[in-house]
Amino acid sequence: MKYEKHSFWLVLILSVLMFSCGSRKYTVKSDTKASKVADAMASLKSKELYRFITDWTGVKYRFGGLDKSGIDCSGFAFLLEKEIYGITLPRISRDQANVVKHKSVDRLNEGDLVFFSFAGRDVDHVGVYLNNGFFVHASTTRGVIVDDLNLPAYQNVLVKSGSVR
């Protein structure tokens, strides 16, 4: 009888511990950069664009590069626009900006281009707009990556945005 009483309490305590640990919900904070990037990617209308970006994500930056051993920003935009939209852009970001019809940032659509001037004068960087303020580009330090256009680092140097279509 004494053994049964202890067994009952032991089983009860173990059950409470097991179920209380198992009932915890582990969630990803929805306000993290990673979750926002994931939402932007999941919201893409073009599945071909999604595949293209995931295939190129992480490819290192190489000035003048045009393949998976290294690519620069204008080369990435050039390949993406050609493969996904059938549009042939000039190869250099400054020239790409010249063929784009200006649109305000709040009117951009998936596949539109965003141009930056980090050096302060001419266009020297390009990315491709996705949605919800996110764009994909070949970063000189991080390679091909999806980034938040609303970051001050980009807002302060954004010089043009628009469409070639």
Would you kindly provide a written description of the structure presented here, covering whatever features stand out?
The protein has 6 helices and 8 strands, in the order H-H-H-E-E-H-H-E-E-E-E-E-H-E. It is α+β, with helices and mostly antiparallel strands and 165 residues long. The chain has a single domain, classed as Alpha-Beta Complex (endopeptidase fold (from Nostoc punctiforme)), CATH 3.90.1720. About 7% of the residues have low confidence.
Keyphrases for this structure?
endopeptidase fold (from Nostoc punctiforme), signal, two-stranded antiparallel sheet, Murein_DD/LD_carboxypeptidase, hydrolase, protease, globular, NLP_P60_dom
Give a brief rundown of this model.
This protein has 165 residues and is of the alpha+beta class. It has helices spanning 2-22, 33-42, 47-56, 73-85, 93-98, 152-155; strands at 66-67, 70-71, 101-102, 113-116, 125-131, 134-139, 143-148, 158-163. 39% of the residues lie in helices and 21% in strands.
Secondary-structure-based class equals: alpha+beta
Parts with pLDDT < 50 across at least 5 consecutive residues:
16-27
Shape: globular
CATH architecture: Alpha-Beta Complex
Integer tally of domains: 1
What is the name of the CATH topology?
endopeptidase fold (from Nostoc punctiforme)
Strand segment tally:
8
Task: Give helix % range.
Answer: 25-40%
Please describe the biggest sheet, giving its number of strands, its sense, and whether it closes into a barrel.
6 strands, antiparallel
What separation lies between the terminal Cα atoms?
84 Å
